[in-house]
Predict the 3D structure of the following.
Amino acid sequence: MNMNSTLCDQAPAERYSAKRTRHHVNFYCVAPQAKSVRLVGDFNGWNLAATPMLRMPDGSWIASLELNHGHHRYLFIVDGEPMLDPHASGITRNERNEQVSLIAVS
């Protein structure tokens, strides 16, 4: 048996596993009066400093991330206040039983 396994030696199920698949996702927040908007979620450890959003000329805010396949919980933090995403896939609860937005990535 060859101990130097390569990607070609792996079974197709391992090569194309959803756990290995990452997808480009754009998050948009419409908050034209905001001074700052941040994106927090299970994908960045709910860290306020991890994902600041960029203001667009029309007053909306954007953040682009690479996320793993699956469901992710998140919130926009607009000038320090949590805001649900009205365009989310759904609403769920976090560990503190607070409402958060849900996105399905596939």
Remarks:
- The first strand starts at residue 22 and ends at 30.
- The first helix runs from residue 12 to 15.
- Confidence is low (pLDDT under 50) at residues 1-15.
- The radius of gyration is 17 Å.
